[in-house]
Amino acid sequence: MLTKRQNLIETIRGGNPDRFVNQYEFMNLIMEAPLGTMAGPGQTIKNEWGITFSWPEGQIGGFPVHDDEHLVLKDITEWRKYVKAPTVQSSDEAWVGAIEHANSVDRNEEFVTGFIAPGLFEMTHHLMSMEEALIALYEEPEAMHELIDYIMEYELEYAKVMIDKIKPDCIFHHDDWGSQKSSFISPEMFKEFYLPRYKKIYGFYKENGVELIVHHSDSYAANLVPFMVEMGVDIWQGVMTTNDTPELIKKYGGKISFMGDVDSGVVDFPGWTREILEREIERACKNCGKHYFIPNLTQGLNFSSFPGVYDTATEIIDELSKKMF
């Protein structure tokens, strides 16, 4: 029987996997790294960038607060006045939990995985609201180029420290690039503003010992897949059914792999049932096949919004592996 790591490699390289890669099993996520303050359920917090996040009780996630009182970036043409990157924590004391966790991982079995969120696009709209960020790409492109470069340089500084402290084999990087039906910006605009910066970020990781880049975008982004390939993404996690995953595998398999095709919104809700999960996961596995595909809830971490959904999905994937391999 292959290890989780070996089975993942066989799957994404079109080799001889002996079972489906089961969701996040190959990534041992090092969540103790000092990435910044994040809101939990029922909390309102201000993070190190000055962005206020609210996660109302009873909701499945949080989002930045963008009223006049809490908006960080009030004028993109004066972004230097408003946006101040926090200091990247580099002391062993700040990283002690992450270092201990990374050192405990059997790297023959799993990938030591660094977690990054938010990404370049998300950070722009966290600072200034989605509407203003999208408008600024059209009306103030020069200032937006400067701002995205500034965010990129912070990411690269953090990457240097992370690589030094935990020597990750894999990076799991969040940046949602679309809605369920379309990308937020056109491919042409994505190519201008985001592709060059992601090539630098992901290239830096690859040049410094990182074997796998897993990019999360639980959205439609089929029109951006060529850019994902160019920037060095190995696995797109969060691929929704609206992307036509089987067709993407036919077209791009061997260049990039796809993780998801089980829409969280369809299976992860208060009235979820095992039967719904069985239907959706079996459809995904039969349609997408054994190569370049990892069955997974489109959720951006290894859990579900409602108790039992993720674990039940894991059980069902194991059962399908026994039937289909």
Automatic annotation (TrEMBL):
Gene3D superfamilies linked to this entry: 3.20.20.210
GO molecular function: uroporphyrinogen decarboxylase activity
Cross-referenced InterPro entries: Methanogen_methyltrans, UROD/MetE-like_sf, Uroporphyrinogen_deCOase
An individual GO BP term: porphyrin-containing compound biosynthetic process
Pfam hit, one: URO-D
Domain Uroporphyrinogen decarboxylase (URO-D): 50-303
Top-level taxon of the source organism: Bacteria
PANTHER family: METHYLCOBAMIDE:COM METHYLTRANSFERASE MTBA
Protein name: Uroporphyrinogen decarboxylase (URO-D)
